[in-house]
Amino acid sequence: MTTLPQYPQPPAPAFLFDLDGTLIDSVYQHVIAWRTALARLDIDLSVWRIHRRIGMSGGLFVSALLRETGRTLSGDDIATMAGKAIVFALANPDPEVDPDAASRYAAVVATGRSDYPNQINNVLAFPGVFRGLLDAQSRLVTDNMLIAAAQALADVVSPDEIGPHYIIPSVFHPDVASSVAAAVRDAATADMGTAGLDR
To answer: Which of 47, 82, 121, 166 is geometrically suited to a Cys-Cys bond with 59, CB 3.0 to 4.6 A?
Structure first.
């Protein structure tokens, strides 16, 4: 079994999701392995079935890949969330909630679509991550490397630029791949040196 990294204790309860929704022991036997692993991290995991709405009181909507006919949420669902809600509706081509409807109530809305602001797309990460790994001649990917990539991606957006419609750089931003690559290379080099790992 993969060794899980040490994370701070999240506020209870925590929820796990897969393609079919929230995990329940009686329906999804593979959650038992996750429950055991998370217990070792002292994370209190409560697993509930939620059929339609996933709204956290802190204002975070988690895209759980719940699939129904049409959209999973409406603008009215977003209106029930806490103020300054953040919505990541990442299903493509149809997000879980209409981005325009969500924007009427949420402070930040991100989707996987290129025709809306805050496009979340794996192309923001993978060219730079792989370039950095190749440059460092690393055969391993560590959490430190991925965190460095995320921080580099965030740093591409300057404090003057960041706002509700620009929380993440465009996939076409010229500095994305090189910034992520440099950060991953440096983290890989540091990880290999610290652990005495072979490249």
So the answer is: 82
